[in-house]
Structures are given as C-alpha cells and as structure tokens.
Amino acid sequence: MNSLHDQLAAYIRQGVIPPYQYSYPPRSTYRPLEEGAWDVHDVWARDLEAYQVPELNLYLHVPFCRYKCGFCNLYTVISTDEDLYDAYTDALCTQIRDHAEIIQARRLRTVYIGGGTPALLSTRHFEQIFTTLTEIYPNWRSTVEEVAVEATPDSIVADPDGFSRLLEMGLTRANIGIQSLVPKEIREAGRGQAGEDVIRQAVSIVQERGLPDLSTDLIMGFTGQTPETWRHSVDELARLAPTTISTYFLTVRPDAWFSKTGSYQYMWKPELYDRYDYAREVFTEHGYVQEGSVRYKKPGRGGYVQKVLTFHGVPLLGLGVGARSYTSVLDYMTGSVKPSMAEVADYIAQAKEHRLRPTTGFALTPEEIVRKRLVLDSFDLDLSELDRFGLDKIADEVGAVLDAAESNGLIHRVGPRRIQLTPKGFKYRDILSWMFYSDHVKNLDREYYEGLHNANMRAKKNMGTPVRITGITTAGESA
C-alpha cells in the first residue's frame, strides 16, 4: 500500500469531517486586491476567451434577515426597514445594468436570489429586479433553467400571496431553511422561530401553489441532537416530500457568533457519519437520488442547477453587497467582507455612483483552474476537459490521488479518462476534495483561520485551537 492510500484510508477510518467543499478556492483565501488593478469588464472579457460555450450563472445577494442564527457566518444584517429595502433594490438594479454587457455576452442559465432572507422583500422589489433583467436580457425567462430564491418558513407563512406572485414571475425553486424538525434543537441554535407547525404550513403553501422545486435542508450535529431526534427529523421531512433535500454537518466557524462567544457546544464526531447513512437510506427508499455529497432530489423534478453548473465550470456573476463572483481569471468580491449596516449603506452609495470595484479576491492560475474542477466536480468528470488548462503539469500528483481514491473505493474509472464517485465516494467526497488543494491555498486558509481563532482566544480565553487536516482548518465555508 502506498502512503497516500494509507493516509486517505486513515482519514476515512477516523471519520474526519472536513468543511463542505462548495467553492474553490474558499473565501478564506481571498486577500485585498491592489486598487485599480482589476477591471470587471476586462476580467470577464478574459474569462470569455477561455470558454468555447459562453454561459453564465447569476447570483443576486439580499443581506437582510429578521434574526441572526448563532452558527451563521454569511453576509447578513438584521433589518426590516422597508425604506432600506427600497434603496438596496435600487442599488442592486443599478449594478445589474452596469453589468449588462457581461450578461448579454453569455447564455444566462440560472438566476439565484440568496441571502440573508430575500423573501423579506416585497412583491414590488422582485418586480423591479425582474423588470431590470428583462430590460437587458429580454428572453431571460425562456433561456434560464432555474429561478431560485431563499426563504425561511415564517417568511412564507407571513405572506403566501406574495409567494404566489413570485411563482407568476417565473420562480422555479425555493430554498427554505428548516435545519431540524425538533423545535428545541433549533431554538438553542439561535433560530428566531422553531415551530414545527410553521414549517409544515410553509411546505403546504408552496406545494399547494405548484412550486416546481421545493428545496429544504437538515443539519447534523446540533447540540442536544441524538440519533433518535435525527431520525425523527429525517423521517418527518421524507413524509413532507420536498423535491430536494440537503443534509449538512454543522460547523460553527470562527467568524460566527457562537465561536466568538464560546456559548455553543455542538457535536462534531465521527458518529455523525452514522446519521449521514441513515438519511441516505431513508431518502433513497422514498424515491430520491443523490445529486451531490449533501443533496438528494426527486428524479426529473428536484436539484440545484446553479450549484451543479458552477461545479462544472460555468462562471458565476455575483451582484449585491457581500456577493462573490467566480471566473476563470479572478474570484472576487466588491466592497467589504464584514457585514454591517454601515457597509450596506456604503454599497448603496457606491452602486448609485457606479464606483463598485473588485476589492478582495484570488487570482486563478491555470493550475488552480484544474484544481477547482477536481475539488468541486469529482462526481462525474472527464479529465480531458482539463487538458487545455495544463493538467499535464500536475498529472503525477492528480494521478496519485485518484489511484488512492480508487483503491479506497471512492471512485469508478469510466471509459478512458472519466471518473465518477461511488456511493462511498459521495460520503467521503469532502475528504477527497481536500486532497486536491494546492499548498498555496492551504497556507492562505490556515493563515486566515488562525488569525480568527487567535482573535477569538484573546476575547475568550477558553476558546480552543482549530482542528486541522494537514493544514486545512475544519472551520471552512458555509453551505
């Protein structure tokens, strides 16, 4: 047995739980960009040159929430101010128009409105956003395969007629954060509402109104969660029959409130993989198929098109405060990376004056483009697609990892150069994905999270040090 095989086998045997790999390089590797060094239109023009089939995912970020979950490290602020919503929507639409040429040069595949809780916006705000898209891309409703919005159960229940209007405007998928069907678990996790009846009402509303794809989630590892309460959540959600279900391991990251205060002790042990196994068994028995390492879908109905396309290398344009953009040239954010009302106000002012520029990010080399696909897209990947980016330069390293994955039962070899994950590979995909990280990305990630941990430790002496898998902290990205 070679050492890489043994290393991978040891991680699996130990039940190591890395962060969910949904982006590469992760946000932790972004660093301030030299002022004026990167022009958005030049970045996207260079990206267009790299791809023979020009396609685009569009992500629009709405940062507002009614409450802040204790484990959340996303770009969110607490506000229910309608005047602020008006000003923010104006700014977002201005930014959409400023990127018209970038959008028009590609086939628009998906539109995802995330947050935050975008469902807090009024119908008129969504009408304004969709009207702006129509101005610059008249047939977007015909070309786009998925129009999605994030919501909370209480936001759906509070305005079911508004949700119906969204369906009339072309909504095809709603992501409703459930996390648990055990009220005590989500109350203690900082959720502002925890009633199972509210969740059932929300699911009933969207299903009765004919939403094509209802996407929900469950989280493994809440404090006080037991195998019995986990089975309850899984069984009840399977009975509710949403078209898409995601299951995540809970990770409280150093920039989340619970980490800063040290007030929440959650489970992060190998036994969580038993909960993964139970969920997979139940959901497959109920007719779901596994789309990704965390996601199950009803065939022909469910799924997460934007995520799948992004993993396949289709670039993503992120607009709104705190949004990230993914290209083959530069992954970047505009404005601040730390959410605050002051930063939201600054975003609104800069958008109005057309002054938004990339401020922090990670410049991709051809090698990192190859690694990005390997990290994200091992579910079903033809390696020949990576040849033009220089796979041959790291072929020995990649081949060794793939050989170790195959000998540990994580991948199938399909045809000359295609790889696909096995069921075991789906389960341990995040461990395998980490093994494709470059040393540069590992070092940047370590530096970022050590800095956050040290700051937390100075504030709270009882905070421990980060757990690592050979350099990558387990405090990774959000799902």
UniProtKB/TrEMBL annotation:
Where on the tree of life does the source sit, at the highest rank? Bacteria
In this chain the Radical SAM core domain maps to 50-295
Keyword annotations from UniProtKB, A to Z: Iron, Iron-sulfur, Metal-binding, S-adenosyl-L-methionine
Against Pfam families, the record matches this protein to: Radical_SAM (PF04055)
Coiled-coil stretches are none
Known PANTHER family for this protein?
COPROPORPHYRINIGEN III OXIDASE, RADICAL S-ADENOSYL METHIONINE DOMAIN-CONTAINING PROTEIN 1, MITOCHONDRIAL
Q: What is this protein called?
A: Heme chaperone HemW
